[in-house]
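Consider the following input, taken from an annotated entry for Auto-transporter adhesin head GIN domain-containing protein (Limnovirga soli).
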Amino acid sequence: MKNKLHQIVSILLFTAVSTTSCTKAVEKPTTVTPVEPVVQAASTFADIKVNSSFEWNNARQVAVNVEGIATSVPVKNTLFITSEDRSEVYFSANIAMSQNKQAVFLLPEHVRTVLISYGSIHKTIQVTGNNISFNYLSN
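Applying the prediction step yields:
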């Protein structure tokens, strides 16, 4: 028992000495002098200067072409073009299923995929260029 206690105390003492004897070398911090950019405040909107290639638009016009189909009974519903999670509505129109429809709407520049819904029909469509085509038939 005395021998076991001696071993435990020796291990604890060795651990305490070895962990406290190691010190990290302290490096001198380098001095960095910040350089402030020279910015002149514009007093009017006309004073603002931007690069000639800068695009002010954050949305683009997109044309949608809806291809109607013949129905034996008149079917009329609202066509929605939304974000995939349906949190943003970009376009809506009440149209008959048999009607062809062309329309133009604004779509945010960053959007590349939209969800088109008409009643129980839902299609996810990739936006390529400035045109979207939609029909009621399944893919």
